[in-house]
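Co-fold these.
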Amino acid sequence: MSPDVSLRTPVAPIAPGPAAPGSPPTIDREQNKQRSRQIRGATTARRLLRILILAAAAALAVLLVAPVLYMVGLSFTTGQSFGVDHYVTFFTSQYYIVGVALNSVAMAAAGVLVAAVFAIPLAYVIARVGSAGVRRALTVALFVPLWINSVILMLGWYIIVGANGIVNQTLLMIGLIEEPLRILSTPTAVVIGLAQLAIPYIAMPLVGVFAAVPRSAEEAAHVCGASPARVFFRITLPLSAQGLFVGILLSFTLSIGALAVPNILGGGKVRMFSVAAYSELTTGNFGLASVIALVLLLTTVLCLSPILLLNRRTNQHKEH
Amino acid sequence: MYTSRTEANGMNMTTAQQQGLELEGISLSLGKGGFTIDGLDLQAKEGEFLSLVGPSGCGKSTTLRMVAGLLSPDSGRIRIGGADVTDVAPHRRRIGFVFQDHALWSHMTVRRHIEFALKYAKVPRAQVRSRVDEVLGLVHLDRHADHYPFELSGGQRQRVSIARALAPAPAMLLLDEPLSNLDRHLREEMQREIRAIQQRLGTTALYVTHDRNEALSMSDRIAVMQSGRLQQIDTPSRIYEAPTNEYVARLLGPINAIPSTIISITTHLGVRLPNGAGISLPADACGQPPSAPDSQMTMLVRPDNIMLCDVADERHHVAGTVASTMYSGSSSEYMVEVEGMPTALKVVEREHIREPGSRVGLRFDKVSFAEEVDDVA
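Predicted complex below.
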């Protein structure tokens, strides 16, 4: 689609129809002058918009497309010559297919799921706060944990779920367990970490859409005979599906590519894409690292495409 | 099928005499706004169409929301069909509620809306489909069953809302200014339809509106509210012709309020007007008769209850001069100045024959008396 076509704004609403016969010609001339002034203004704005779009496209090309193309080139380079050796290495290895790719998908999905369980009620409570100022403040507060570097944030979990952490101390004291639970360096710890980072990304878009669901839509369902829980799951949440989709898209993309979380909480035992790519990079195997990165990209797109399709379907039912 | 009503599950019948709706001593104060409803008593008979009328903030919508259970009164009891529902959750009250903004669910088709309502009314699955078709036929939406709300016009959306409220054969139908978002033409059409459907199904209906014409044309009875209090409750014609105070009178249409003194009460009423003229009115021309002789009261007269005649005609009560006229097709409005009266009188006549400046006689055909109130909002 050429930008020329997409940017052409219809001129019709600006220009009034032909003057009624018999109307004084002075008014006609005045209208014409005004019309041409408006058109000139519109043309300038359109030209500016075109320049801005070209600039954005150029930045995108240099910063995103070029590195990816470079990476594609790297992935096909073995030593000095062209070859698919790195792809063969990746796709014939149980370690990469199951241990890295499938494990990453499972970790990210579990993290997003756990985060959603916490984020959805949280967002609903925030959205139903009466004052708009308090609502905004609470939405910002969602992101306060992310102001701390994620490495330090993850180290915090050592204090909580470590062998001598709060959770184990408490459980030992109550006598529910006899020796400390091993949570660190397990997939569970990674899911906890990923979920923590994902909560704000799921909650934030949801606050907006929850707040936009009319009270009367919920009340209508309630009066119809649906209990408050049913009202939420059959009316409020479906009406907010788009916000949930956005949150899932954001948080899944972040989770599946996570590096610090699996490295720190997984203790090197939980393999994910970025961990594997990083270890290849540190040994100088740029080719295999590129393959891992490209598979990560494709996996992310593949996993999110059902959501994108669902989102499109939901869009069609929305009121304009 | 809708008129036969099964007993609400979980509600025990407290009174043998079946009442549509009964509010007893309802009080509620909401927040710092100083908004209060104070000891409201209100009854709607089984199958009755009762309108709540008043300016915004008078508590009419709040009352409706309390009947639905969306708000809880601080004190008082609410009974629907004889069953006390004061402490029953909204989803167990068997209420049909029509919202001002329609409150449709944009992710559901028209059919799914009705099915949703029927599902919780525990209608057997086998009957759902025919019931949906029947209800949609009732509101003329049979051909739109599979449309989404965004594909419907404003009037059609409100029909969906009405169908959803009526489908489970509710114990009570509540309507909160359902027509105020529609254009004038559609509004009149929907007034007729809502009334016809309600009468056909025999559902008790509580209808909140600030539109006096809507209230007058649709209701069995009208309840006028002011600042959380019930001012008057009566049939549309009684409340229009015989308002008990100037507030009620003004709310339902233009009114002339004439401060006057009652001289005598027999088969005829002797009334002295502010200009000193004494007039005699037959007692049956009085909507609300005055309380006692020698009292100061406000005589309320509708502009269409004053007849203009020539000064020579002996039937007139007072004489005055036409100050201005306004022709509006089906009727004409005159402002008539009478010497000694504080304000000019508004008169509506069928014919447009009087000119400004001409002398006319005025005859009061129907009046109502109210206690004098200094400040009328």
